[in-house]
Design goal:
The chain is mainly alpha-helical. Helix content is 65%, strand content 0%. The protein is built from eleven helices and no strands. Helix 4 packs antiparallel against helix 5 (93-99).
């Protein structure tokens, strides 16, 4: 856990004491100090709370100076501010709440709208509210690339998505690339990934349409296509430990 240098000296001291103990592996002591800090900050007025939440979110999501937030900090201090910003459709709160990745922890299921906070929809909204926020663009592209990877990770044997959904992902990606072509240097590796998956899926659907009595791997060799496959492992249930 990284140390901070915040304008409020007492909050800085409370955070850094908590961070020091967490870094030393003193979990129980660190958790108590975290709770003490949250209680102290929540006694302040709303503007002061918001200023601190903005500060630590900037430190994590804009500067990369903080690796993660513990659940009590998120639920009892950060989320009330972020949710208010999301409901008012204010950036960068729309992006920040997505970056919290709330759904990755089942303990957050009690939060209303958690699916929305961790969805493509909120990133699309963030992009509409602030089209100049390149971080949102990168998150959207990453989401589409991850989906394209997931749909293809059982190749060369079979596909996980219907053609319509693949086309939708590729079309959304292409629109972003066209819209942000002046940012091509920033998105260059992602553009290459999209081109790769576009060619891969086009090859697959062409292969299926040809109805040949050969494997997709053999078809790729015949058509000078060179793709990398994820290794597939099969297990015999009778040999399971």
């Amino acid at each position: 856990m990284n140390l901070i240098n915040y304008s409020d000296e007492e909050i800085t001291k409370l955070w850094n004491d908590y961070a020091d103990n967490r870094n030393q592996g003193l979990k129980k002591i660190a958790n108590k100090k975290l709770r003490d800090m949250i209680n102290f900050i929540n006694l302040k007025n709303k503007d002061e709370i918001k200023q601190f939440v903005d500060f630590i979110c900037i430190e994590r999501f804009e500067k990369g100076n903080i690796k993660d937030f513990q659940q009590p900090l998120i639920e009892d201090l950060i989320l009330p501010i972020l949710i208010e910003g999301v409901e008012a459709e204010i950036m960068p709160y729309l992006r920040w709440i997505y970056q919290l990745k709330l759904y990755s922890n089942s303990n957050y299921k009690k939060i209303d709208n958690i699916e929305y906070y961790n969805s493509e929809k909120i990133l699309v909204k963030a992009n509409l509210v602030d089209p100049n926020d390149i971080s949102t663009v990168i998150l959207l592209m990453t989401l589409y690339i991850d989906c394209l990877w997931f749909g293809s990770h059982h190749f060369p044997e079979h596909i996980l998505f219907e053609k319509e959904y693949v086309d939708e992902l590729l079309n959304k990606s292409s629109k972003i690339i066209e819209t942000y072509k002046e940012k091509s240097l920033i998105l260059s590796s992602m553009i290459k990934d999209i081109e790769y998956y576009k060619d891969l899926y086009e090859s697959w659907f062409k292969y299926k349409n040809e109805c040949l009595n050969i494997s997709f791997t053999e078809w790729c060799v015949l058509n000078n296509k060179n793709y990398s496959w994820v290794k597939t492992f099969y297990y015999n249930k009778g040999n399971e430990m």
